[in-house]
Design goal:
The protein is an alpha/beta fold. It has helices at residues 23-33, 46-55, 68-77, 80-83, 117-128, 145-155, 183-187, 205-208, 244-253, 285-290, 306-313, 334-342, 349-362, 365-371, 374-379, 383-393, 422-426, and strands at residues 2-6, 37-39, 56-58, 64-66, 88-101, 104-114, 140-141, 160-163, 196-198, 218-220, 235-239, 258-263, 274-276, 281-283, 327-330, 398-400, 409-411. It folds into 2 domains: 2-267, TIM Barrel, CATH 3.20.20; 333-426. The structure holds zinc ion (2 copies).
Amino acid sequence: MELIVDLHIHSRYSRATSKDSNLEGLYRWGKIKGINIIGTGDFTHPAWFAEIQDKLEPAEPGLFKLRQDLAIAIDKTLPASIRKNLIRFALTVEISNIYSKNEKVRKLHNLVIMPSVKAVSQFNSALERIGNLKADGRPILGLDSKQLLTLTLDTDPSALFVPAHIWTPWFSMFGSKSGFNSIDEAFEELAPEIKAIETGLSSDPFMNWRIAELQKVTIISNSDAHSPQKLGREATILQSQVDYHDIINGIKTNDRRIVGTIEFFPQEGKYHYDGHRACNIRFSPKQTKNHQGLCPVCHQSLTVGVDNRVNELANLAEDYQPKRHKVVEYIIPLIEILAEMQEKTTAAKAVQTAYQKVILDLGNEFTILRKMPIIEIKDAGYEALAKAIVRMRQKEVHVEPGYDGVFGTIKLFTSNEERKKQLTEQIGLGWET
Ligand SMILES: [Zn+2]
Ligand SMILES: [Zn+2]
């Protein structure tokens, strides 16, 4: 069956996360969004790992489900349109590896996915000797990424190790500030064990395919959600069985089980362009070059974004596209579409209520954004939303790229007249969350 998979998330034990980042919250939002396999995140944190063992129970091989009493209580509060969506959890963590290699400080984030509680316990005991796992759900370890890879595969050969958001400047494998220039440089003779990479919000598969060595690995996408509402900002689509091993083997071999990815428009990511947030400077790679990489306001070097860094490492031209490639779908989160239509922020009560109403009437978010025939959306009374979704699916968007930690903006409508407000009039009551 088609599975929507999001393996990179954080619990409330990670820094700068929402207090609702718990298993119940992930279950609830997984159903609302239409995600099937959700990473637990943070399994190295002792309190979170205890909670995982208390609130999840074994389901299909290598996968877990929310304890029945908890699931029933949540299902009762959800509209019938989404109650039946299948939700399973996989055991995952992101680790921040900070170390020095070839006389440079390296900071890489890596995802580790494990098939069993036993494997996680064993892995955690090994890591406990290296660093403090209690301080942060995403622990910082002074361990070479290559050693972490070795430890992962030694613990369980069916584990998966994935360099995370590989282009972000400060903490990633190819980051301009602290990364490497190739998988080989980072992992040496173990480079062939890197079977997959994560695009991150600021890059898409087409950008990654310009790097010859990345054509040999599977490209996956995840949300890196710090609150359950952000689940599925990006995700991976598989055609596989509901079974850890089938999913992970699909990822490791990049065979037909990998259908493709669901992507943020990469310009919307926080590090797409170059710039200085404090100096209000946003530059394209070309502008950066014209200024010799320096900020015209403070004269310090600019934070080089993902677009620039991809150009630096690319072996292939900007317009290169592989002849055959996996599906790449671009989405804008439904709440952002509704906020734009109502000219309000995503936090506005009216926008939140509209979101609930749409889910209640039409079903989960991914079905609405990706699959639902436009006529059905219209027939349910959502004319303006139907128009917005057509534009999103056809990639007719207006973009201001993100830079130096500032999210970019994506607009579907250009003029105020176009911003139909009838949606506000259709709003009745949502359901209680
Ligand atoms: Zn990270
Ligand atoms: Zn500056």
